[in-house]
Design goal:
The structure holds 2 protein chains of 2 kinds.
Chain A (H helix, E strand, L loop, with lengths): L1 H26 L2 H7 L1 H4 L4 H15 L5 H26 L8 H15 L12 H23 L4 H21 L1 H4 L14 H5 L11 H23 L2 H11 L1 H6 L4 H27 L9 H14 L4 H17 L3 H8 L2 H18 L12 H7 L1 H15 L8 H6 L16
Helix pairs in contact in A: 5-11, 5-14, 5-15, 5-16, 6-7, 6-14, 7-14, 11-14, 12-14, 15-16, 16-20
Chain B lengths: L9 H32 L6 H18 L8 H30 L8 H22 L5 E2 L8 E4 L2 E4 H23 L1 H11 L1 H6 L4 H27 L1 E2 L5 H13 L5 H23 L10 H16 L14
Antiparallel strand pairs in B: 1-4, 2-3
Amino acid sequence: MHDLAVGARARLALSWTRVRRTAWNQVALPWGRLRRSTWGRLPPWVRPFLWFVLSLGVLVVPAFDDTWMRMFFLVALYATLGMGLNVVVGLAGLLDLGYVAFFATGAYTVGILGSPESPAIDVQLAWWLILPLAIGVGAIVGVLLGLPVLPLRGDYLAIVTLGFGEIIRILLLNMTDKTNGSSGLFNMPRPSVEYLHDLGLTNRHVVDDVRAFYILIVVAAFVVWFVTARLRDSRVGRAWEAIREDEDVAEGMGINTTKYKLMAFSLGASIGALGGAIYAPFIDTIVPSTFSLLVSINVLALVIIGGMGSTQGVVAGALILIGVPELLQFQETKDFLESFGWLRTVLNAPIDLVNRVTHLGIENLPPSEEWGDRLASYRFIVFGALLVLVMVLRPSGLFPSRRRQLEFEAPPEAERPQSEGIT
Amino acid sequence: MQPLFLFRSAEFYSDQFVNGLTTGSIYALIALGYTMVYGVLQLINFAHGEVFMLGAFAGYGVLMGMGGDDLSGGAVALAIVVALIAAAIASAAVATGLERIAYRPLRRAPRLAPLISAIGASIFLSHLVDDYFLNGEQRFYPTIFPTGKVELGPVSVSYLQLFLIGASLAMMALLYWLVQRTRHGRAIRAVAESRDNAALMGIDVDRAIVLTFVLGAAMAGFAGVLYGLFFSAIRGSMGFIPGVKAFTAAVLGGIGSIPGAVIGGYFLGLTESFGRELLNEIPFVNLPNEWKDVVAFALLVLVLIFRPTGIFRQKEGKRA
């Protein structure tokens, strides 16, 4: 009886899924796929509520003060970069550890073409004019860096792209006649919103404070999400996934692997450049040391920690890996820690006792006012530990996309790459 | 106007050659750890540079504990030997811990998970030393090694360089013997061939993997002390660049091959010391010192494109 009921319900659910799937496929919007995955498993009444909360979150967030907004901006920026890298790593399976190269390309395109200080060119273009240029330059750099590494796979690709990232930084540092070297470029052009001002939608003329930049990056993130989600469900996306699964077989099935790999590189690169083009006016001064390997590692880590191939995962990864270390620098965190002053009294008493008995000279805990500063300077230690911890606890990420989750069930030994042994 | 490269003095050539051998020795020692771990686990042990760094600090602790700059005569030799052994042991202990905490739970996980875990461990260790213990400062090795040179015609080698190159070669020979001629080495090679088959033959796979990490780390710790003695300044982030270059060396020699890693290390060291000078001979090219890193990476890209299995490896495979 019970089994029968379950069977009937399952059948009903199945047919309903079919109906819905057809309907959504005809509309063919990116959230069609979302419905079928994590989203689709939520109870129906939760979904509109969750949409409401999510969109409200985006709107309400600007009510925080500037330090919080800075954090949210960085989280959204890294989420955008993460979606870009996800095309390269998550979809096409090309492990790229030099993503910072494209981020720097975008930022320096804005700097060189728009900053009055740039020594190379005497023109100052408007930010909106530079933006498509930056994206285009990013795509070209992506193809240029992609071409020589086409035959490489896996870890070798990682180490070569890491080298490219470092080379770009050294180039920026040494091409002083174009980039001002280590003193960097400043006075970036601000994105003008004169049109929106004329429409009466905003009272500012340019995007110039953290809140406005946050809205800009959220809009960019949505555009990137839409584009990547649509591509993932298209013929191109299927070709990428085929290449990721097995390049030789994909080639055998008639997929032009060269073309699609370069496409993935250039799309990922142009998204990176887009992020850089928004980051440059936000930070206002760009110096080569900003574009270090740590940026590449951050982006790759948040893609993998979030669970490759899922957008929610990228956002969650950005919140954890960018948000938490930023959070450690906040005054609120310091105040919060300061309120634990009693803990110091409690812990110092036994330390004093041990010291009096053994003469070991164990250091007392510092006053709680210093804990915040200490913690802020330890944020990279926390970051490294977080990476290890999340990977050990959830090796396939926090929100693995359903398709990948199925693949991630441990492959049998025979399918693993075999070494040729140590000789 | 500097003299054209080709017509530089013999002293110039021999100096560059000795410098290349010195840095090459350090690259080669570190590269051994990369190549062995990659051979067994197919994992780029990103934290290996930090294992090298911690070895340097362990050796520093021992040297300072035994008297630091006040050491003289026979005590110097004793202190350096103790420091080298202590560094090898400390690095091996750290690597064992890393394997247990960060890599072993991920042995059956998707391929990128251990890589990210290794990167996390690398960031954790380098910043632990830099931000927690040293507050961003550096430490300096005591300059206790006897100064002086051996002159052989145009070749002049300082005692320290001679010791560094000789000790490295001795350690590499020891490692080669351990891996090729002993039971434990055979166990490691068997696990590298096939983990499951090795287990069926009664080999304790976990133990062989730990042993791989221990041997590689001991080499890195040894290299750390040599690095400290030669370059003096040590800090938490010192392991990154030598680490990446040593991996480059391992790839150059064909990853998984122990002689390959050694040859790759020396090849990279020599190419670096000659490469920038050579490029600067081209008119209008004036590359500052940072460009020696670019030379290393450019070399890596070229080798991977034209000889994906390494310069020396003959066996055809689609590893890269």
